[in-house]
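lol ok so funny story. i was supposed to be doing the assay writeup but got distracted and ended up predicting the structure for this chain instead. priorities right. anyway since i did it might as well share w the group, maybe its usefull for someone
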Amino acid sequence: MKRFVTAVVVLVLVGGLFGTFFYLWKQSRKPPVVFETDVPVRTTIIKKAVATGSVVPRKEIEIKPQVSGIIDELHVEAGQRIAAGDLIATIRVIPNMASLASAESRVNRARIAVDDTQRDLQRQKRLSDEGTISVSALQQAEVSSAQAQEELSAARDALEIVRRGATAKGLQASNTRVRSTVAGTVLEVPVEVGSSVIEANTFNAGTTIATVADMSQLVFEGKVDESEVGKLQPGMKLLLTIGAIEGRQFDATLEHVAPKGVLDNGAVKFEVRAALALQEDVFVRANYSANADVVLDRRDDVLALDESLLQFEKGKPYVEIEKAPQQFERRDVELGLSDGIHVEVLGGVTENEKIKKPRADVGA
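and the output, tada:
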């Protein structure tokens, strides 16, 4: 029995040892390395600088009131097209109590002056009829009476302006009627009927009643990184992609590059502006976000390689050409323009040659 147990143990040990050696031997055998290949292609390579920004009207005007008060009527809404001079809103003036008291006092003083000059004029007329005063004295009394009447009229107009913001005879041209100064599309009406508004003056920009813009003239305003701004010049063509309009690209022409950069999220960027060429069948709204590709250089229908096929030695590029199945020959190449994905080949490779794809898990 003991011999049987011993034999079993020995067989188990031998079998385990054999299995271990077999496993290690199998693991030590590596499968043959098979490299994939690719061929050069003919394509168009465009080197671009990217600017991010938005599409805005070239001219956007904020309409502000010339008097303070409360919005009594609104005559436009966002999206409506209007002409210069069209009525936008009517303002009801809330008079200042001190100004109202002063204006009322001026009217009372003017009325007293009118009564006084009228009595004096009547007296001068009686004396003139009696022949006791000269004609010039009568004329002076008439002038004084007319001046008093004019002052009373002016005082009443001033009181009406304080109360209502306009006189009855000048209501149509009144500052209480806010009119558009330009023709265009109403982009925004940020107030409601009943809202209080403040007039535009030296000390206050005033309340914006409406924003009007010409939507037929749009520009792209964006920013480019300082590493690319030196390559930009006014007149360059841009390809504009608007996020809200899928499948469309718009042409634009660079008009302006800012001479001074601004710090944006830790990087210095420069503002650019480009005129947008609109397409008749597409309506572009104000403040659409957009990306602009500035075409810095371009090569059409050139032989190019995928940049992943390139290998470098001491900074010089080369590729490995397949001469026989899985047999490769090194060849130096001359490169041209690159877009970050494909690179132009100026020499060293022909169109139908197969090029080895380097693998990161094995040596080239």
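The radius of gyration is 44 Å. The chain has four domains: 37-44+300-356, 49-57+215-298, 64-93+175-213, 97-164.
back to the writeup now i swear
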